Amino acid sequence: MDGNLYKIIGGIMSKEEIDIFQSALVAKHEVLNEDEKIILLKNLHVLEKQFPKIKSSDPAVKAVGAKKGDLIKITRVSEIAGTSIYYRVVVN
Amino acid sequence: MKIKSLEFKIFSPKMIKDMSAVKIEQPELYDADGFPIESGLCDPRLGVVDPGLRCRTCGGMIGQCLGHFGHLELTKPVVNPLYGKKIYTILLSVCRKCSKPLVDEEELKHMKNPMGEIYKLKKKSCPHCGEKQKELSFSKPTSFREGKNELNPEEIRQRLEKVSDEDVEALRIKGGRPEWLILTILPIPPVTVRPSITLETGERSEDDLTHKLVDVVRINERLKKNLELGAPDFIIADIWELLQYHISTYMDNEISTLPAARHRSGRALRTLIQRLSKKDGRFRGYLSGKRVNFSARTVISPDPRLSMLEVGVPEVIAKELTLPIKVNKYNLTEIRKIIANGPNTHPGANYLVRPDGIKKKITEENKKDISKEVDVGFLVERQLKDGDVVVFNRQPSLHRMSMMAHKVRVMKHTRTFTMNLTVTIPYNADFDGDEMNLHVPQTEEAQVEAEMLMATENHIRSPRYGSPIISCKQDHISGIYLLTKDGTKFDKKTAAELLMAIGLKDKIDELKNEVTGKELFSFLLPKKLNIEYKASIYTRTKKTEEFGVDDLVVIKNGVLKQGAIDENSLGEKKGALINILEQMDKRVAREFIDRVSRLSLEMVTKYGFSMSVSDQDVSDRAKKKIKDMVSGFEEESRKVIKDYESGRMKKAPGLSLRDVLEASILRLVGDASREASKIVKDDLTDESNPVVMMAKTGARGSYVNLTQMCAFVGQESLEGKRIYRGFTNRTTSHFGKNDFSLKARGFVASSYKEGLDPIEFFFDAMNSRENLMDKSLHTRHSGYMERRLINAMQDLHVGYDRTVRDSHNNIVQFIAGEDGLDPSKTDGGKPLIKLLNQG
Ligand SMILES: [Mg+2]
Ligand SMILES: [Zn+2]
Ligand SMILES: [Zn+2]
Predict the structure, then answer these.
(1) Radius of gyration of chain A (CA)
(2) How far is it, in rounded angstroms, from Cα B70 to Cα B318?
(3) Which ligand is nearest to the CA of B433?
(4) Full set of structural domains in chain A with CATH
(5) B379-383 vs B349-353, strand pairing mode
(6) What digits encode the pLDDT tens for the residues B587-620?
(7) How large is the ipTM?
(8) Which residues of B touch A87 (CB under 8 A)?
(9) Which domains does chain B have, with CATH numbers?
(10) Does A23 touch chain B (CB under 8 A)?
(11) Are A87 and B814 inside 8 Å of each other by CB?
């Protein structure tokens, strides 16, 4: 991380080269594959539109390369529960 | 069908005429025989208010016919008093001659708010016809002047009529034609909205609105007559203005510039606007809040003999509140007995509903007959009696424990609701005049639901911090400490009396000739209880890990082996004993709370517990010690100030030298207070000193309070700093400028007991006032914040799959609160683990 910081300050690193997941403040984002997505929607008895949303312009979404309609699994560090899992659907 | 949008418009004269059933022409209401006059304000075509009569327009009876509007043709037009300002802005925006907007068409197109912008341009002449514009003025509520001349409603109406429909749109005037703001026809509301009341004497008393309408119609007729007679202009103008006044007050009787229209008695009339606005207007009084049936409200008072499950209800209230009971073959005899009591002897009944739905009032006269008549299938409205479930509430209802279900105990001779002292905490109630509300759930389903979800028993553990909220306080703690501390012994007789007080008659046989308080207390504990924890007196007295006689509470197999019971056992949030009992079984916990609170108060009553001024006396040695200590700190502070003034003070990162000075002085006075606290603590060692006892056990007060009473008050602060406000660079005129000494900046070296000098007193008052303000401001803000959160989240729910969803089934959280825990079922936030050795 220190190395990155140095590069950024030095202006060597481009925006794309920065790994935002290096930061402790950015939670882990993963794209669910089609099967996982179907199972999740079925288990929760919900439609895609009833899911919490995330913009496709979100840096984390861009970093994992998700498109509109993809489900993102977000694994957060939670003070009360250790880790907590959240899902969001990508919207424009 | 779904409503897409709503639009509010004003009535056009045509619409008023179209919906009118009657043209009103007569100012009289009734003829000599008392029948309503045709085309009068009580015309039978306007609807019915008298039972038995039918509406002349629709033929409906009372309740079927909602009433029909009439109309009154005004002899001369009148300004709608509610739109004076609107009329003024329109008049300012259009030419006085051609009624075109006072801007170029091109300019008008680009205006976002044309009427708000045009008048600011102050055009001298019309860009369309060139007409010179005159100065317009408006005075509330209905008069307009142009130059020196009064503009009358007729002239205004003419100008507004001339505004073309295109210009109306261009000016963004919404809700209809502008000339409709000048009334030519007045809608007359149906009699159903202004019903007359027939007094017992047979005399009719009319509604305020009718009174006002009579005035309007009368003046309107007089104006017509005078016009027909060709009366002089000034007379016509006078009557016209009077008509305007009556119509203005008919709509709003609280216009500041108009004298209110009054009733003969001098009471101001309640006209249209008054019916809607304020606390008991239509909105706040009938839509947002309504009167509630089967409820009662009175002052509360304490009764330690009651269980925390119960609420004492005065008999007078119990007789008034009823429950509908269906009569069946099992309760028939009981119901007959109750009905035979009538409405005036307590477990009685007030109403009977026959199977055919006819309701009958039970009276002293007919109670015998009804008692015989009643049979299976009847419904009886029985008076509230012991054991009924009621919901008890104290405002502000900030959390769910503000409304809990209790069981009724009818009290013959009280006039207040009585309650156990332990539920005082969740309700945040005291007995200095607090009132509470009581509601009676009417159906069996509601009663069971209330009992299962809202019973006090189910709310011993607070969802806020996951530990007991229904718990002991003040004298409870003092009493139980006196009982359980080392050395408390009773003879068999006294012990038996204490046991009787908590209803443990059968345990008396188990008593030995001499009983210790700990043995007595153990009677309250279930046999399988094993626990060990530190008492409040421990943490509050010693620093090292060595335990005094009563410092460590040890309970083995339901017997208190050692340790004194105090706040850590029974108090709010702490209550280790209540906590563990609640985990075993909430009923066990409830029984324990009932008994322990009763027993402790019995103990405190028997033993006697009071404090006096002399309890805060410290020894002369300690006094001197404190005095020396304070002068030592004063000396040190002078040194620090000297350092500052001479520039020898050490700098610190991020702080100005002034900040450093303040910080070090604050540290000094803090040390002084701590030191004093220690001296006081070491000096007041008398075990029987009640003030010390209360501080140690957590019953009331703290060593800080004690120190302030018997050593010195210490530093007074304002906005978190030493006191600095007042005069230029000094607090009061008793000090020189830039005097940073302790005394000059709010250090109080006197104790509350010996008394403060005037300057100290003043600083103390400053600090007190700040605390008072903070308290009231803070509660208001946090209260509002909480309300907004509740409002935003009120329809979120946790589903069976543990997800949190809103009313559209949108997912908000995948597991409630990220951990899926219900805090009211946790131990201070951690999941409940049975800490029991057995079972
Ligand atoms: Mg009070
Ligand atoms: Zn009708
Ligand atoms: Zn013009």
Answers:
(1) 16
(2) 49
(3) 1
(4) 20-91 (3.90.940.20)
(5) antiparallel
(6) 999 999 999 999 999 999 988 999 999 998 899 9
(7) 0.86
(8) 814
(9) 21-68+189-282 (4.10.860.120), 76-182 (no CATH), 295-459 (2.40.40.20), 475-607 (1.10.274.100), 613-766 (1.10.132.30), 797-838 (no CATH)
(10) no
(11) yes
